[in-house]
Amino acid sequence: MRKSAKKSRNKRVSRRNKPQTTNLPTPQHPSATAQISAQMAFSGPIPPPEVLRNYDQILPGAAERIMAMAEKQSTHRHKLEENYLATEARNSLLGIIFALLLGITGLSASGICIYVGQGWPGTALGGVTLVSLVGTFIYGTQQRRIEREQKYQIAAKNQ
After folding, report:
1. Do the Cβ atoms of 97 and 120 come closer than 8 Å?
2. Is the pLDDT of residue 138 over 70?
């Protein structure tokens, strides 16, 4: 019985391995078709002049509305950038003022400790104050440099 079961299984496998023919269209076959597609893309708020002309033909005044929208967007972006720069300048100034106050306070406390006879605690306090201020300024300078480099790379890619 085993042999007959094996034979029937082999027959099934051999039927599966037969090559199948399909009736796919070929370039020589009359039912073959070719598809050609075109794609147009642009970047920015203003489309190319040909597209603007087509918009204006379909809907009179559409080109003027698109231009007005682009001008409003540009004005909005300029205002956002001005606000951002003003905020950054304010934050930078506040950072310098608070660093100055922290430095004066820490070094004054260090001087008072040393004056009253606590040399090691006063020296440690003064050292920690100076190291933290210098470290913060160095870290901030490096971060601004990294940001500028990243912005430059992004700007270079967009050109």
Report:
1. no
2. yes
